[in-house]
Design brief:
The chain is mostly helical. The chain has 2 domains: about 55 residues, no CATH class; about 90 residues, Serine Threonine Protein Phosphatase 5, Tetratricopeptide repeat (Alpha Horseshoe). Helices cover about 60% and strands about 5% of the residues. The protein has 9 helices and 2 strands, in the order ααββααααααα. The protein has a two-stranded antiparallel sheet with strand order 1-2. About 40% of the residues are buried. Keywords: Signal, TPR repeat. This is Tetratricopeptide repeat protein. It holds the Pfam family TPR_19. InterPro entries: TPR-like_helical_dom_sf, TPR_rpt.
């Protein structure tokens, strides 16, 4: 009995610990000046220590991508899309993943899913896009199709990762996440 409880506790705690520790784009973004000081979709420039327009040309793609994630987490999906537009790597799977996410969260499910499919076509091992697609499928009541994405995540080495946990939880609860 005690082993069963310990195993159950560990199975719930491990994905959360991995999520909290995070790696790359799996953990929620840490709020920065982009969302605490900058207004109207401006992005904090760590070099100048000032807010800058995403299209200013003074921000590299990694800084812009960090701002995209932060905007999305804060529910500022329009700002996330505007910042994605400023990135040079328009056809990368990470841009397509977040373009799909923000588009879906703004209500255009079909366009969001199309971006997810493009990202998967570019990088079938992108576990985050598979998780987001699966969460969207859950929200549309297509749980079996979401389970296909969960199986793909696991088959591609994604057991005990945030994408696997988030999609598994969405399937069980019927709700997805906002990042």
């Amino acid at each position: 009995m005690i082993r069963t409880i310990a195993a159950a506790t560990l199975s719930l705690a491990l994905p959360m610990a991995l999520h909290a520790a995070g790696s790359g784009s799996d953990s929620p973004p840490t709020p920065t000046e982009t969302t605490s000081q900058c207004k109207n979709g401006l992005v904090w420039n760590p070099n100048t220590k000032k807010c800058a327009a995403p299209q200013s040309g003074s921000l590299d793609d990694d800084t812009l991508y960090g701002a995209v994630r932060e905007f999305a987490y804060a529910g500022q999906y329009r700002h996330a899309l505007d910042t994605l537009d400023a990135m040079s790597e328009q056809q990368s799977d990470r841009v397509l993943t977040y373009r799909g996410f923000a588009t879906r969260k703004l209500g255009d499910i079909d366009a969001g899913m199309a971006f997810y499919r493009e990202a998967i076509e570019l990088n079938p091992d992108n576990l985050l896009v598979r998780s987001y697609m699966g969460q969207a499928l859950v929200e549309q009541g297509e749980v079996e199709a979401a389970r296909v994405q969960l199986t793909e995540i696991r088959a591609r080495g994604g057991r005990s990762t945030w994408p696997e946990y988030a999609l598994r939880n969405a399937i069980e609860s019927g709700r997805g996440y906002s990042y």
